[in-house]
């Protein structure tokens, strides 16, 4: 990794920490409680931002990386690593989206889990992501693994809108989008709106930092695997040379004995 | 492509006719699932009648899982998978052939399960047309997705445990759409318009058929 990239990563990390701290401060101390939901409304600064990162950003990057790997002109190990890293970090964010949604559901609907359209589709997406990670853990050579995972991510990406709309028709309790609704008229005001916006920025920065770090680890582990292979080859060569040396020495001794 | 599809479908169906694995193992397994659901829900016919469409589709889903695994298990011995590739067949043709054979098997199982919910759960059919369209569209979707994932995991040692994890969340819309469409078609349950659900099943089948035609080649190379 170049020095400039390391520096950029540090800046993103610091910006993520500062923005999350600011979101916590604004969310817990500055913004007022809601008339109906009371203090539980403060989850609005976390839950939609987590959902945006997991359902759109992470999954979008994973699908894009998979398509670019499958496309012969753009095929590069980088796109495989990009897709894998986005899925792994996205799985964490999807899990957090479900947990925060469930806590919100307990206070709003009175139950930890309801068969609501968005909850159900997010849970199915979470299982799809776990399936991708399980597929990635199966030992295989690089090319076969990358191809398999890229196809799996692509199938999952195509399935996501079908799952989303099917469960939407099926049952929905979830409230409409607060900011990006069909009228493009935000239904949240003042300090609450700014804190919500800051939540989106801060969790996006956290995702970017985690994604970049995971990408770096993926690259390093690939390099370590290459080194291990090279070491093994060198070891085998050394064994072969020793064996040959041993055979040569044995032959020389035989000649000496005969002479 | 179509000729290759016909050849592969014929080969798979001939293997099934000779080995009779689907008729003697997969079909009894699907019926057993129906019986187990009845045991779990109790002897009262009312909840069984209400749940009949959903239980039918869950049984078809489980049967498709076993049949998809079987569809690629026949290629795993004696290097048959390599042989299939060395014939120089069009990958899209191989995919369509596999889907056709799997559809034929699943439709036969679906027919058996349909008779099962009528005889065992006491369900009555209100609209045969909608029922058949939903069953065919749903099964084509299941067979397409099953063939794709079956090919993906065919060379792996953990395929038996990995396939359900990969396939079941993807085919959840078929379970949902099929159940809703059948609820409308069965007189004994609460009637609702099956139109949008039939559309969903047809779109799902078309998307996965098209996707399989495009990406089965790269998948074959990976397996």
**Biggest interface and its residues per chain?**
A-B, 29 and 33 residues
Largest sheet of chain B: none
Beta percentage of chain A is under 5%
Shape descriptor of chain A: elongated
Strand content of chain B: under 5%
Query: What pattern of helices and strands is seen along the backbone of chain B?
Result: HHHHHHHHH
How many H/I helices of chain A? Answer: 6
Could you name the ranges of chain B where pLDDT drops below 50 across 5 or more consecutive residues? none
Structural class of chain A: mainly alpha
- Cα-based radius of gyration of chain B, to the nearest Å: 18 Å
Write the H/E string of chain A, N to C. Answer: HHHHHH
Q: Which regions of chain A contain 5 or more consecutive residues with pLDDT less than 50?
A: none
Mean pLDDT of chain A: 82
| Count of individual beta strands of chain B | 0
In the CATH classification, which architecture of chain A applies?
A: Up-down Bundle
CATH structural fold name of chain A: Four Helix Bundle (Hemerythrin (Met), subunit A)
Helix content of chain A: over 70%
What percentage of residues of chain B falls in helices of 4 or more residues? over 70%
Structural category of chain B is mainly alpha
**Could you name the CATH class of chain A?**
Mainly Alpha
Describe the structure.
The complex is a heterodimer of chains A (259) and B (223). Chain A has 6 helices and no strands. By secondary structure, chain A is mainly α. Chain A has one domain (3-225): Up-down Bundle (Four Helix Bundle (Hemerythrin (Met), subunit A)), CATH 1.20.120. In chain A, α2 packs across α5, α3 runs antiparallel to α4 and α4 (117-137) packs antiparallel against α5 (142-170). The model of chain A has no long low-confidence stretch (mean pLDDT 82). Chain B has one domain. Chain B is built from 9 helices and no strands. Chain B has helices at 2-19, 21-41, 45-73, 80-86, 91-119, 128-153, 159-170, 172-185, 195-222. In chain B, 49% of the residues are buried. Chain A binds chain B through residues 70, 124-125, 127-128, 130-131, 134-135, 138, 140, 143-144, 147-148, 151-152, 154-156, 158-159, 162-163, 165-167, 169-170, and chain B through 145, 148-149, 152-153, 155-158, 162, 165-166, 168-170, 172-173, 176-177, 180, 196-197, 200, 203-204, 207, 211, 215, 218-219, 221-223.
């Amino acid at each position: 990794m170049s020095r400039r990239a390391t520096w950029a990563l540090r800046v993103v990390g610091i910006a993520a920490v500062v923005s999350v701290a600011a979101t916590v401060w604004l969310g817990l101390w500055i913004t007022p409680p809601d008339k109906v939901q009371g203090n539980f409304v403060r989850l609005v600064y976390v839950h939609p931002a987590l959902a945006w990162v997991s359902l759109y950003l992470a999954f979008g990057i994973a699908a894009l990386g998979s398509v670019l790997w499958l496309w012969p002109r753009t095929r590069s190990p980088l796109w495989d690593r990009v897709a894998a890293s986005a899925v792994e970090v996205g799985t964490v964010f999807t899990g957090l989206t479900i947990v925060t949604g469930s806590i919100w559901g307990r206070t709003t609907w009175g139950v930890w889990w309801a068969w609501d359209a968005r909850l159900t589709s997010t849970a199915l997406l979470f299982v799809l992501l776990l399936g991708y990670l399980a597929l990635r853990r199966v030992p295989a050579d690089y090319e076969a693994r990358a191809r398999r995972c890229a196809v799996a991510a692509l199938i999952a990406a195509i399935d996501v809108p079908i799952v989303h709309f099917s469960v939407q028709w099926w049952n929905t309790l979830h409230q409409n989008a607060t900011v990006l609704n069909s009228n493009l008229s935000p239904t949240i005001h003042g300090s609450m709106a700014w804190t919500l916006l800051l939540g989106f920025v801060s969790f996006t920065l956290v995702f970017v930092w985690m994604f970049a770090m995971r990408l770096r680890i993926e690259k390093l582990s690939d390099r370590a695997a290459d080194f291990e292979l090279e070491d093994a080859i060198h070891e085998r060569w050394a064994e072969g040379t020793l064996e040959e040396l041993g055979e040569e020495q044995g032959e020389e001794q035989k000649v000496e004995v005969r002479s | 492509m179509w000729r290759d599809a016909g050849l592969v479908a014929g080969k798979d169906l001939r293997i099934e006719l000779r080995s009779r694995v689907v008729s003697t193992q997969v079909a009894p397994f699907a019926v057993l699932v129906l019986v187990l659901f009845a045991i779990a829900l109790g002897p009262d016919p009312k909840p069984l009648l209400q749940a009949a469409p959903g239980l039918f589709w869950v049984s078809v889903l489980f049967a498709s899982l076993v049949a998809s695994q079987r569809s690629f298990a026949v290629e795993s011995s004696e290097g048959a998978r390599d042989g299939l590739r060395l014939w120089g067949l069009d990958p899209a043709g191989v995919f369509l052939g596999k889907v056709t054979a799997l559809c034929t098997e699943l439709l036969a199982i679906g027919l058996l399960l349909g008779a099962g919910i009528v005889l065992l759960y006491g369900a009555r059919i209100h609209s045969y047309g909608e029922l058949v369209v939903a069953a065919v569209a749903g099964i084509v979707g299941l067979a397409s997705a099953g063939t794709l994932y079956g090919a993906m995991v065919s060379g792996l040692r953990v395929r038996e445990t990995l396939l359900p994890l990969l396939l079941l969340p993807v085919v959840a819309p078929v379970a949902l759409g099929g159940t809703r469409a059948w609820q409308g078609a069965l007189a004994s349950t609460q009637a609702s318009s099956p139109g949008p659900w039939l559309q969903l099943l047809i779109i799902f089948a078309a998307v996965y058929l098209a996707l399989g035609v495009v990406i089965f080649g790269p998948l074959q190379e990976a397996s």
